[in-house]
């Protein structure tokens, strides 16, 4: 009897172990395309756009979540990176100067119709540097230096650049080892804010009707045809979306397992009433890319950001990567130097004025900083707004671009101030309020 019970017990234990192993394998296996997609794309971009060393990327960018288990192989001749996990679910990202790094999922490389013509080259306008009397330089540099300090060396904040513009002039900048003023760094979701500007410019140029324009995609023949540009910019479309990056979600599937991100985004169903429900959505941002593309020639579309925005502000380092179908990934994939990110921030600080000419429609900044419905006061139109809880000591008129792992552009009209912070915050986020408050207090 005891022997039978022992055997039964062993079977239960063995079955439980098999079940747990099976669950663990399934948990990882369904995430493999996301792991290898992220690893191949990120390594490719860091190498061929950021001009980084592969080992540095693997030792830093890969050291979080399940990404740490990815292996990679670099092909310098064809400028590609292939990533696998234990030899499984390989994904390859290919670099071209016009498209950046692109993962080819269902698209075969021989059928990949990437943009081959040289892009419009924006002019470079150097930032004017200044040591004005109204700045306490000791306090200013201490505030910046403090932001590079880690409370826990085992979990560093990973600050790579902090830069300050006052009255449009560069008054301070600091970089981590391995980075400098010429280093292109990814903005992640700060790209969304870039497309706020591009939509505004397109309206000003007459390529779009205005914020209340609906019937945005021919595929939207149902109630979705009533979604407006304003709904999309304020994340109020009502379409189903999950922005969770820790699992298989709409966001991770779109970025790492889809060749046409615009089509994926516009085919989401309703989950709430448009205009009433707020849902942060990279899908909404990529719809903006599709809206622009549908209203321009291919040549005009690919050159539009460079000719109508980056050239005007003198930011020549910018590159916006595309998906395999040639859509700008307007949710995530803009790269630039810290100085050029600062020029973009100053463009908004200056309310879209360049050489006394307004590139944005009248009232665009007011719209950008208008609280989106149901956003709890945190969001405007593809820009974030400060809350008392997170920014108790920062100026109330501040608004900011916000990207994954701690990318920030703080725009403070009352102080005529732009603060850029770039980095790799894989653990806790640093105290941005202390940075902003420290810089403001250094201004006499």
Figure out the total of helices.
Answer: 13
- Computed over alpha carbons, the radius of gyration is 23 Å
Main β-sheet, in a few words?
5 strands, antiparallel
For the record, what CATH class of the largest domain applies?
Alpha Beta
Number of separate structural domains: 2
Class computed from helices, strands and strand pairing: alpha+beta
Biggest sheet strand order reads: 6-5-14-13-12
* End-to-end distance: 87 Å
**From N to C, what is the helix and strand string?**
HHHEEEEHEEEHHHHHHEEHEEHEEEH
Properties at a glance:
alpha+beta, 13 helices, 14 strands, 444 residues, Beta-lactamase, 2 domains
Describe the protein in words.
- 34% of the residues lie in helices and 15% in strands.
- It has 444 residues and is α+β, with helices and mostly antiparallel strands.
- It folds into two domains: 80 residues, no CATH class; 281 residues, Beta-lactamase (3-Layer(aba) Sandwich), CATH 3.40.710.
- A five-stranded antiparallel sheet has the order 6-5-14-13-12, with helices on both faces. It has a four-stranded antiparallel sheet with strand order 1-2-3-4, with helices on one face.
- A hairpin with a 4-residue loop joins strand 1 and strand 2.
- The longest helix is centred in the first third of the chain and has 28 residues.
- About 2% of the residues have low confidence.
């Amino acid at each position: 009897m005891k022997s039978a019970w022992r055997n039964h017990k062993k079977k239960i234990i063995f079955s439980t172990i098999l079940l747990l192993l099976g669950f663990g394998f399934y948990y990882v296996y369904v995430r493999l395309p996301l792991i290898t997609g992220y690893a191949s794309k990120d390594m490719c971009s860091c190498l061929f756009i950021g001009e980084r060393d592969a080992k540095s990327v693997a030792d830093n960018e890969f050291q979080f979540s399940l990404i740490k288990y990815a292996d990679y192989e670099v092909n310098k001749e064809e400028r590609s990176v292939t990533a696998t996990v234990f030899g499984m679910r390989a994904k390859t990202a290919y670099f071209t100067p016009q498209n950046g790094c692109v993962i080819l999922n269902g698209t075969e490389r021989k059928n990949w119709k990437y943009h081959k013509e040289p892009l419009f080259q924006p002019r470079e306008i150097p930032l004017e540097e200044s040591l004005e009397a109204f700045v306490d330089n000791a306090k200013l540099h201490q505030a910046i230096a403090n932001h590079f300090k880690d409370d826990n060396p085992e979990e560093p904040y990973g600050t790579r650049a902090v830069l300050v513009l006052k009255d449009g002039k560069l008054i301070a900048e600091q970089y981590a080892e391995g980075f400098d003023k010429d280093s292109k760094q990814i903005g992640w979701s700060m790209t969304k804010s870039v497309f706020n500007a591009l939509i505004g410019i397109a309206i000003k140029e007459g390529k779009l009707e205005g914020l209340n324009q609906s019937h945005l995609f021919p595929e939207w023949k149902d109630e979705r045809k009533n979604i407006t540009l304003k709904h999309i910019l304020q994340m109020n479309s009502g379409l189903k979306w999950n922005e969770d990056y820790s699992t298989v979600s709409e966001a991770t599937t779109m970025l790492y397992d889809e060749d046409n991100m615009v089509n994926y985004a516009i085919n989401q169903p309703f989950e709430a009433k448009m205009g009433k429900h707020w849902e942060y959505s990279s899908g909404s941002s990529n719809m903006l890319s599709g809206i622009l593309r549908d209203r321009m020639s291919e040549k005009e579309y690919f050159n539009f950001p460079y000719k109508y925005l980056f050239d005007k502000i003198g930011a020549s380092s910018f590159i916006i990567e595309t998906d395999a179908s040639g859509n700008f990934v307007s949710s995530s994939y803009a790269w630039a130097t810290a100085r050029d990110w600062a020029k973009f921030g100053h463009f908004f600080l200056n309310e879209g004025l360049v050489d006394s000419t307004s590139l944005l429609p009248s009232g665009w900044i007011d719209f950008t900083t208008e609280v989106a419905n149901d956003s709890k006061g945190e969001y405007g139109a593809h820009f974030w707004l400060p809350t008392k809880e997170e920014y108790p000591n920062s100026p109330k008129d501040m608004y900011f671009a916000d990207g994954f792992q701690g990318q920030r552009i703080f725009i403070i009209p009352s102080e005529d101030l732009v603060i850029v912070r770039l980095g790799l915050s894989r653990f806790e986020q640093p105290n941005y309020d202390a940075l902003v408050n420290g810089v403001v207090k250094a201004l006499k």
